[in-house]
């Protein structure tokens, strides 16, 4: 089907009304529309290279080693965090983020601070440091908590292994099953709807991201699923939008405007087709 348009004069301006081709469009895979206030933007980041990644490349079984469970970043990992920090500032993302959520493990916390934290901290500043100097064998100066979003560490977005025997997800001597990670990921996303922040950075782990996004990607177009679900590289960032379909915690819109002031009847022009006796003008 071809919809034809011409030209229209508005004052002294001429607007070209462009024809739109619909004949090749597949309506079953068309766009989706959601109210803005029922959406959040999330910026997903996998931690930078940790010492466990270096050892794991040599022998995959070392990923199960308790000694490497809370691995710190390597010098290359800190360089990766520095590069991502430059990117989020250059593209303006750093000024948009309302909240930074990180896994409580050292490598994710170091990445989060390195990418989204404040500038250098010096003694005597009126705010506390976000990270002290040389934290976690980092050989890095202290970072300030000034001029950066708030940070919180959340247990639900950590990696597979869970070492606290008080944690309901803990199972002795075994790695958390992938399906349990996916379930935990969905619970984490539901929890996000209890937060008021609209633009959130989440610094977490490869396994958590892959299993959670794979669960979300079921039923998507194969190309979309591939884009969403592929494994993250170290310190990779992907920005996505999530929608509150279940109405868990959506706030009222801050941008919608009711129109028609003063209040009163204001039938749309196509109401004339339904109520011709009213003679509603276009």
TrEMBL record:
<feature type="region of interest" description="Disordered">
    <location>
        <begin position="253"/>
        <end position="282"/>
    </location>
</feature>
<dbReference type="GO" id="GO:0005737">
    <property type="term" value="C:cytoplasm"/>
</dbReference>
<dbReference type="GO" id="GO:0016791">
    <property type="term" value="F:phosphatase activity"/>
</dbReference>
<dbReference type="Pfam" id="PF00300">
    <property type="entry name" value="His_Phos_1"/>
</dbReference>
<protein>
    <recommendedName>
        <fullName>Phosphoglycerate mutase-like protein 1</fullName>
    </recommendedName>
</protein>
<dbReference type="InterPro" id="IPR013078">
    <property type="entry name" value="His_Pase_superF_clade-1"/>
</dbReference>
<dbReference type="InterPro" id="IPR050275">
    <property type="entry name" value="PGM_Phosphatase"/>
</dbReference>
<dbReference type="InterPro" id="IPR029033">
    <property type="entry name" value="His_PPase_superfam"/>
</dbReference>
<comment type="similarity">
    <text>Belongs to the phosphoglycerate mutase family.</text>
</comment>
């Amino acid at each position: 089907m071809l919809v034809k348009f011409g030209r229209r004069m508005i004052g002294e301006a001429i607007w070209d009304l462009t024809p739109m081709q619909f004949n090749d469009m597949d309506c079953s895979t068309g766009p989706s529309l959601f109210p803005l206030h029922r959406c959040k933007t999330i910026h997903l980041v996998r931690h930078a290279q940790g010492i466990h990644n270096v050892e794991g490349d040599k022998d995959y079984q070392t990923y199960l080693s308790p000694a490497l469970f809370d691995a710190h970043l390597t010098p290359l990992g800190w360089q990766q965090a520095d590069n991502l920090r430059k990117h989020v500032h250059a593209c303006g993302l750093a000024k948009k983020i309302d909240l930074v959520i990180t896994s409580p493990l050292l490598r994710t916390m170091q990445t989060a601070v390195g990418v989204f934290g404040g500038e250098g901290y010096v003694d005597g500043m009126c705010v506390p440091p976000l990270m002290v100097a040389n934290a976690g064998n980092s050989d890095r100066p202290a970072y300030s908590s000034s001029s950066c979003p708030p940070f919180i560490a959340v247990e639900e977005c950590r990696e597979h292994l869970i070492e606290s025997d008080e944690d309901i997800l803990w199972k002795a001597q075994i790695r958390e099953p992938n399906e349990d990670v996916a379930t935990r990921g969905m619970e984490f996303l539901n929890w996000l709807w209890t937060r008021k922040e609209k633009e959130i950075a989440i610094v977490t782990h490869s396994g958590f991201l892959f299993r959670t996004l794979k669960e979300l990607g079921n039923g998507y177009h194969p190309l979309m699923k591939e884009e969403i679900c592929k494994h993250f590289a170290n310190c990779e960032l992907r920005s996505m939008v999530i929608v509150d379909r279940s109405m868990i915690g959506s706030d009222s819109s801050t941008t919608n405007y009711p129109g028609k002031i003063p209040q009163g009847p204001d039938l749309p022009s196509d109401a004339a087709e339904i109520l011709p006796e009213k003679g509603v003008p276009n």
